[in-house]
Design goal:
The chain is built from eleven helices and 13 strands. By secondary structure, it is α/β, with parallel strands linked by helices. The longest helix is centred in the last third of the chain and has 24 residues. The two termini are about 20 Å apart. Bound molecules: pyridoxal-5'-phosphate.
Length: about 350
């Protein structure tokens, strides 16, 4: 297995690198390391892109007006409360840079780009750890200081559990009282849209909610995300954003995604059923403990003392299956890995390989 990359990657989904290193085609890999809708993108996107192609002779609409209008209608907000970005990652970097916080406070484990964005903006970083007994989501509420920028994911990443709404409300009130900011990352909330905390935006002007088209609509390669917040805050951030970062095709695709309600409900039904299937089957495998989740990924703990997630990942790569070794999430260790929820045949292939690779 000497030709297999053994370093824990920073992110899931680095399939181009893996295919190159393993000397296989991209299509030979089955990727459970990035949590992307297994249905593929909504079918209407093909036509939307073809139509948008005629417009690429112009610069994109800097204000993404049509897309923001569609998002406003879908989320029952106003376009002034929405800022569109080149993936939600661009907006993480923008917020860290433009708000000039005194300190970043990250609830961990967490998506590594929060820390990287704060480092690049030369903002000191502190961490608020969560516990395994709380399924790695908020158990005790941080005490933010003036000028803090707090990062918190809802549902938690990589454990996939929802926040206790009471704890969220306590935190949001403390943020307002302290004169801090809260960036609530709801990149995966589409799978349980009814649980979104966007309903509280009007109440907490220092709350921003980050959203993504990547996961739910299956378009990581297109790069499209958005931020919800109070109009004054959104206007301030828009001022600091690079011009034309969201291209014409991405804007058209976003509108086509929002128009396809049938795809959305098919996705929610599929993911719920397959998540339950995968969870039950994983729980039945000796040496593995999955965590309950409401989204399209499952955090799993290896309970065998003689195996690490890195070893398991290596072994799975020999089957051309990619899993996310989660050891490099702050607050987790070498026993944790994360799996995407995919289609039934793909999940069955994963389970079969896992059974072989995690056995003695
Ligand atoms: C919790 C979380 N937030 C945000 C992102 C960024 O997603 P994107 O930039 O594709 O919108 C990711 C990507 O993996 C993520 O896991």
């Amino acid at each position: 297995m000497t030709n297999l990359p053994d370093k824990t990657p920073l992110h899931g989904g680095d399939v181009y690198f893996l295919a190159r290193t393993l000397g296989v085609e991209l299509t030979d890999l089955l990727d459970f390391s990035a949590s992307i809708n297994p249905l593929g993108f909504p079918p209407g996107l093909t036509v939307a892109v073809q139509e948008a192609l005629t417009e690429i002779v112009h610069y994109p609409d800097r204000r993404s007006l049509k897309l923001r209008a569609a998002l406003a209608a879908y989320h029952r907000l106003t376009p002034e409360e929405i800022l569109v970005g080149n993936g939600s990652t661009e907006l993480i970097y923008l917020v860290a840079r433009a708000l000039r916080p005194n300190r970043g406070l990250i609830v961990i484990p967490a998506f590594s780009e929060y820390e990287h964005a704060l480092n690049l903006a030369r903002v000191p970083v502190a961490f608020h750890p969560t516990r395994e007994s709380h399924h790695f989501t908020l158990g005790d509420v941080p005490e933010p200081q003036a000028g803090d920028l707090v990062f918190l994911a809802h549902p938690a990443s990589p454990s996939g559990v929802l926040l206790d709404p009471e704890l969220f409300l306590t935190l949001a009130a403390r943020i307002e009282a302290a004169g801090a900011y809260l960036l609530l990352d709801e990149a995966f909330i589409d799978f349980v849209e009814e649980a979104s905390l966007k309903i509280y935006l009007g109440r907490f002007p220092r709350l921003m909610i980050l959203r993504s088209f990547t996961k739910f609509f299956g378009i990581p390669g297109m790069r499209l995300g958005f931020l919800l917040g109070a109009p004054e805050l959104i206007a301030r951030l828009a001022e600091a954003q690079e011009p034309w970062s969201v291209n014409t095709m991405a804007q058209a695709m976003g509108r086509a995604c929002l128009a396809d309600r049938e795809y959305m409900s098919r996705t929610r039904t599929l993911i719920k059923g397959e998540r339950e299937f995968l969870f039950d089957r994983l729980a039945a495998l000796p040496g593995l403990t999955p965590f309950t989740s409401v989204v399209n990924y499952l955090l799993v703990k290896l309970t065998r003392p003689d195996m690490t997630a890195a070893t398991l990942r290596q072994r799975m790569l020999a089957h051309r299956i990619v899993i996310r070794d989660a050891a490099n999430f702050r607050g987790l260790d070498e026993r944790f890995f994360r799996l995407a929820v995919r289609s039934r045949t793909e999940n069955e292939r994963l389970l079969k390989a896992l059974e072989q690779c995690s056995g003695i």
